[in-house]
Structures are given as structure tokens and as C-alpha cells.
Fold this protein.
Amino acid sequence: MNYQLLAAEQIEAHISSLSKEEILSLMEIPKLSEHGDMAFPCFRLAKELRKSPAAIAEDLAGNLHHELFQTIVAAGPYVNFFLNKCVVSHAILTQILEEKDQYGNVNLGAGGKVPIDMSSPNIAKPFSMGHLRSTVIGNSIANILTKCGYTPVKINHLGDWGTQFGKLITAYKAWGDEEKVKANPIAELLKLYVDFHERADTDPDLIPQGREWFKKLENGNEEALHLWKWFREESLSEFNKIYQLLGVSFDSFLGEAFYNDRMEPVVDLLEEKGLLVEDEGAMVVKLDEEGLPPSLIKKSDGATLYVTRDLAAAMYRNTTYDFSKAVYVVGNEQSLHFKQLKLVLKKLGFDWADQMVHVPFGMILKDGKKMSTRKGKVVLLEKVLQESIQLAEKNILAKNPELNNKEEVARQVGVGAVIFHDLRNDRMNNIEFSLEDMLKFEGETGPYLQYTHARACSILRKAENPEWETQDAGLGDPMSWEIVKQLADFPKYIERACLKLEPSIISKYLIDLAQAFNSYYGNVRILEQDSSLKERLNLVCASALVLKEGMKLLGLEAPMEM
Ligand code: ARG
């Protein structure tokens, strides 16, 4: 129920020169409650109606009536609308209780497919904080798109191809140890990689050898392929542990390697269109006119590059999904890459490239600096998650030792803390890495939302089969209205989050809702046996539903008890 729209429709019936959308955009929310819940300013109408704004307001106010409005009065040049809060609240709560998890669905997408390139860690390297960001932001965007009528396709574009595998194979063959890799794959492979760079400082043969092995890999050399496959499998099974903890799944794991034999056609096409030029031995597409550095398609030794694989992948996704949008959730450092990628596709004459959206996000910094794998300075994400889960378990043991499924709830809460920490602020903000902050369960956190939801559920449990009075009076008091207003706004925030591809819009909304709910809880005797008990329980139930659905959009689970 959209009471703003309703007021606009009322006005539209009397003012033919403005559409209801225009009226809606002119509508104000008064700062003072004595000016009503909404105010419509009449200045803009004065000229064409040849009347003073105050006279127009007077006329309008005299002609508008609706059961949802207690009074509609003119105040100078404004028409002030006072809602009949009991009636409006009841209508909103009834709608939420009827629609349940369908509440807030908006059809923006008409079923259109949206491949979301997300997570996409690099094989043989630890899963970094940046990849965590891409995973949780991408997952939330997928949920929001689904809610808005799109069909997202979550793609893990694994970094399983590139010169680094040449280096890794070289290092493994020269000084690697099979048993060690098997026992501790990611750590051991990372060590080989780090050592490779260290030794390369003094051993000039290593770099060319690495390049040679990557060439062999690209050309299908059996030994190279065999090692590569093994590194890939070991890495994937480590990554899967993290995805399982996070509760994130994918529709496709087609990584960079998949495009190995789809790149030659791309290079041919670029050549055909006369876009490929030589530059210091390498083949590039010039982007001077666009004011960007050239896009490097093929190295001097013929090895293809990251962007070449992305070109092939974009074309593949276009033919496979006929997408209405293609989203790339990748760090802001790669903005130039995605600009170049789109421009090269446009030069090829692919207008669908306009539907590609890079969704960038800020970095996770440690002491103000970027974390780098090359030097081995990484935080192991799985450890962070495990630690958070343990902390949650400790909290449960202290506060609610009787809880039935402690382990499961600890996982939901511990992981929720980490996910929400990431989604709480605008995605473009950098985040200073602090384990302590990530594991905070109080203040504006995931566990705070989960706790508020569990609290609402517990009230509803206590109220089972209450002997309430049959007459049910509505709620018109300011405290309940604060909550109802927010509940009514949920669809608007979902739509906004979808248009901006910005999960933090939902996070902030949920924090506000939880705060309103908790202050209600602290000030109102919800279970008091009076004539509004039933409506108060409806309010609690609707709040629980919206909190749960909102958390689901972020990728957080909502335990009933904690
Ligand atoms: N593997 C890359 C990295 O870790 C991210 C890949 C992003 N996706 C893409 N289509 N380029 O930096």
C-alpha cells in the first residue's frame, strides 16, 4: 500500500495538467508533525490556473476526501495531508502478513537474464579479502535482482589461466614437494610462487622458463596440463569450504581457462576490423581517441592476456544468455580494465556492450595500505570466518546455554557478522581491515539484526494462543507509526538498491528498522491484554518478516532463537 501514491492520485483527479508522477515528485514530507504527514505545494500551479497558490490549496483541500486521510487541509500555499494512521497501519500490516516473503517484490527485470561475474579468485593463491567482498556483494546483488524480477546467473570467473601458472609449474618442477602440496595446497602453492619471485631476483633463467611453461600450457602440453589441473582442483576444494561457510553458490564455474580456445577468433575479428596494431612487438588496440592507454591483446611472445579472455567471455555470455545486463563485481582497481574492455567491444560493433556494468568496490586496507599476495602478506579468510563462528558460540554459551542447535546458530551469527561488516557501508568506501571490527556483535552489526529478529520471534512464541479481546483496535500512536512507515517503505529501498546495485541501501534500511523496533520493544508493553494486542502482534510479525527478508537479500540467515 503506497499512501503517497494514493494522495497523488487524489490530486491528479482535480489537476489535469500534472501527472501523478509529477505530483509525487513535488510532494514534501513536513518537518513538523502539525503540518501533517505529507504536504503538496501549489506554487507551480499558480501561473496556469491564474490563482494564488493559497487559493489553489484552499480549493484542492475542500475537494479531496479519502478514508485513509483523517483530514486534508490548506495551510497557506500547501495542502497538508493527515493520515488516518489506524486505517493505514492496518492496511499495510495486513498486506505484509498476506504477502509474506513476497512482500517487496518489484518487477523491474521482466525475467531478463543477468550474468553476474563475482568472486573469481585466482587458483593457487589464498582467497583474499577482495574476493570476499566480490563474493558477498555479488551474492547480495543476485538476491536483490531476483527480488526485482530478473534472473541472475552467478558466474565464478576463476583466475585459472595466465603466466602465473607457468611460474608455478617451473617452481614446482624445480623445488616443489608433492606431499607438502597435498597436505596444504594453497599455502604450499603460494610459497612456491613467492619463492619463485625471490629466486628470480638472483636467477635470471627463471622468468623465461616460467614464460616457456605457460606457452606449453596454452598449447596443451600434457605435463603442464596435468599439473595445472591438479593445482586447480586442490584450490577449488579449498575455496568451496569458504563458499559453504558463506552460504554462497554459483551457477557457473567457467573460469579464464575455458576461453583458451575461444580467443583466436577474437584476435582474428580484431584483425579483420583493422583494430589490431603492433606496439613494441605486442598487439594492441589503440584507445587514444577515448583518452585511454591501449588495450594489450597479445604479448610479444604470442601469449594472450587477461583482457583477451574477458573479450571472449563477454561474447560467450552474450550468445549464451542474451543478457539484459551483464554485471562485473570487481574491485575499483580494475576500473580501467573494464572501461577498455567495453570500448574494444564497442569498436567491434557490439552494441550489447552498453549493457555491461562494472560494479566496483573499495579496497580492504591494512594500516592504510593495500594487502598484497606477492609478498605473502595475506589474511586467511577461512581463519577469520572460523574465529567469528567460535566467538559467536562463546556468546551463545554465555547468554543462552539452553539453545538447541547451538552450532548451527553460531555459524549463522559468526558468518553474518563478517558478511554484514562488508555490506554495511557504500561499496566504494575502503575498509580498514580489523578483525575486532569484523567480529563485533553490538552496534550496527549483522548479529544485532539477527538478534532483533529473534527477539520478535520470541514475542510471537510467547503470544501463541493468547486470550485476547476479540475487538481489535488499530494502532495510531507515534511509536508504532515509526515502524509501520518504515515497513511500508521496504519496496522503495529494494528498488533503489536494485537500480544502484548497492546492497548497503538495504543494510542501512534494516539498521533503522531494527532500531525503531527495539525502541518500541523497550517502551511498549507488547503483550498487554488489551484491545490492540492483536494489532501489536501483527506489527511484530510484520517486522520479523521484513527483517528476515531484508537479511536474506544481504545473504544473512535469520535464526528464530539465539
Ligand atoms: N581473478 C581476478 C582477480 O582476482 C578477478 C576476475 C574478475 N572478473 C573478470 N571477468 N575479469 O583479480
About this structure: Residues 162-227 form one domain. The chain has a mean pLDDT of 93.
